[in-house]
Design goal:
The chain is α/β, with parallel strands linked by helices. It has 14 helices and 19 strands. The strands form five sheets. Strands 13-12-14-11-10-15-16 form a seven-stranded parallel sheet, with helices on both faces. Strands 8-7-6-9 form a four-stranded parallel sheet, with helices on both faces. A three-stranded antiparallel sheet has the order 1-2-3. Helix 5 packs parallel to helix 6 and helix 6 packs parallel to helix 7.
């Protein structure tokens, strides 16, 4: 259904029929269709879902010319509308990135199906046998910005875990999302998956987001994937349970005992490999007794990265500017890095506890005792030792793809993939027992 925005923010117009439909009714109708499709999807075997996703990956490859042309339109619109370099990087598709999207769908297809997995079993003294078995959550609403790959990742993960999904992508990627969605559905339907199992909202009306957030009883969970303002709105307005993915204010702490070559390589990669991903490091903490602090910052500055530091960091290189208090709490998603010199692990841990968003923190050190303390005491979803924070990614964790990085403490944490998109139910088997 081709849809354009109507003059009223509460109305969606189907251009094929000229029918006017309130946005709240549109969301309710799509949600009901999605729930019906999910009941059918839940009956498919693991092998059938795998085959459908492999067909979807093949359809993505066949549709590459259309998808890339749609992305060029989005890129041109984004540049004209003043999108930042980081956001344009998130939006950009090329042949290599599109192949990566198709490969990620294939990777999800061949993962072990979590549905039906027994995760706990016990026999009671009265003879009752109790099992906890993984089941799909149901209909998942996913609201996201910028990255068109989320359309494919979310669809693949939801289908493999037996969930239907209602997608609402950002306006900046609207043409890319529609082209990717069309290809995915073509492949999925060829594999026996109902088309309504993966739906993309046909309107960019912001009122549709509000309608999704209020669709309790129709949508079982909302997953926001975007900037702080989007997540804040979702958490403030939703009556549907929310699996939150907050910003990535990530820290890398270079301890005094770090190997110097390793530390320099990790810091450079963690910041500049891709600055627009949520695993990019945003604050570098350098131990005051680390012997080559200048060797950490010089390659970054030479590569054009802007550094903002405290007084001791600024003494390392005259090109380092002054950091404001706000810098320690900023997710730049750009070639900008905050730098602080700290007096040992206690100060590093205190800084992280005060400023972290709970996403990813890393320590570089050859001192195993210090590393173990850091891993134990840092309360973030992902904590790393001697590795770049750019590995904070579901694909790199062997999960095939991810919906996002969950930074809360309930239900799921870290990269949310198949297991995070399931819940469980109790199965109780008896032989005629009655409770006394």
């Amino acid at each position: 259904m081709a849809t354009t925005l109507a003059a009223s923010p509460e109305i969606a117009i189907d251009s094929a029929t000229s029918a006017v439909e309130p946005v709240s009714d549109l969301v309710s109708r799509l949600a009901r269709d999605g729930r019906a499709a999910q009941a059918m999807l839940a009956r498919l075997s693991a092998q059938a879902k795998e085959r459908a996703l492999l067909l979807a990956a093949a359809a993505l490859r066949r549709a590459a010319p259309q998808i890339l042309a749609a992305n060029e339109q989005d890129m041109a619109n984004g540049a004209a509308n003043g999108l930042s370099g980081a956001l344009l990087d998130r939006l950009r598709l090329d042949a290599g990135r599109l192949e990566g999207i198709a490969t990620a769908v294939e990777a999800v297809a061949v993962l072990d199906d979590p549905v039906g997995r027994v995760i706990g079993e016990t026999a009671r003294p009265n003879g009752l046998v109790l099992q906890r078995v993984r089941i799909p959550i149901g209909l998942i609403g996913i609201i996201y910005e910028s990255r068109p790959n989320v359309t494919a990742d979310a669809a693949a993960l939801c289908v493999r875990s037996g969930n239907a999904t209602l997608l609402r992508g950002g306006t900046e990627a609207v043409h890319s999302n529609r082209a990717i969605h069309a290809a995915l559905v073509e492949g999925l339907v060829a594999g026996g998956v109902p088309a309504a199992a993966v739906q993309l909202l046909p309107t960019q009306d912001r009122a549709a987001v509000g309608a999704m957030l209020k669709a309790a009883g129709l949508i079982d969970m909302i997953v926001p994937r975007g900037g702080k303002s989007l997540v804040a709105r979702v958490q403030a307005e939703a009556t549907v349970p929310v699996l939150a993915h907050l910003d990535g204010i990530n820290h890398t702490y270079v301890h005094a005992a770090a190997d110097q070559a390793m530390a320099a390589a990790i810091v450079f990669n963690a910041k500049l490999r891709r600055t627009g991903v949520c695993g990019s490091v945003e604050t570098l903490l350098i131990d005051a007794t680390y012997p080559d602090a200048a060797g950490l910052v010089r390659p970054l500055l030479d590569a054009g990265c802007e550094l903002r530091g405290d007084s001791r960091a600024r003494a390392l290189d005259p090109r380092i500017g002054a950091a404001s208090e706000a810098d320690w709490d900023t997710e730049y998603l750009d070639a900008i890095l905050s730098v602080a010199v700290v007096d040992g692990p206690d100060a590093a841990l205190a800084h992280i506890a005060r400023h972290s968003s709970g996403h990813t923190e890393a320590i570089v050190t050859a001192d195993q005792a210090v590393a173990d303390r850091f891993l134990a005491e840092v309360d973030s979803a992902i904590v790393m030792h001697n590795a770049s924070s750019q590995f904070a990614d579901g694909g790199e964790f062997g999960l095939g793809a991810e919906i996002g990085i969950a930074t809360g403490r309930l239900h799921a944490r870290g990269p949310v993939a198949l297991e995070g998109l399931t819940t469980y139910k109790w199965l109780v088997r008896g032989s005629g027992q009655v409770r006394p």
